[in-house]
From TrEMBL:
Entries under Pfam families matching the protein: Big_2 (PF02368)
Provenance organism: Nocardiopsis mwathae
Taxonomic placement: Bacteria, Bacillati, Actinomycetota, Actinomycetes, Streptosporangiales
Protein name listed in UniProt: Uncharacterized protein YjdB
Location of the region described as Disordered in the Swiss-Prot/TrEMBL record: 1-23, 64-88
BIG2 domain segment(s): 4-54
Origin superkingdom: Bacteria
Bias (Polar residues) ranges: 1-14
Gene3D superfamilies assigned to the protein according to its UniProt record, in alphabetical order: 2.60.40.1080
Amino acid sequence: MASTRQFTATTNHGDVTADADWSSSDTSVATVDKTGTATAVAPGEATITATYRGLEATAEVTVTEPDPETLHISPESADLEPAIPKKK
């Protein structure tokens, strides 16, 4: 389950994503790196926080269970005839 999401931090003066400090309230659910990219770890909820010059903003993250893996076969049916032996 390696789903990611890029978060950005902005002030009235522009994008400060690269200069913000990033954190996750629950790293067992989601982590966030210094660029603001959050990565899902396990199902649950976490809060992603960006801090910049005394300002703080948050975003809620929900990691859901992945769909169960399924297997399909194609084609779903086939008509076959036995091979005719070669005459010698």
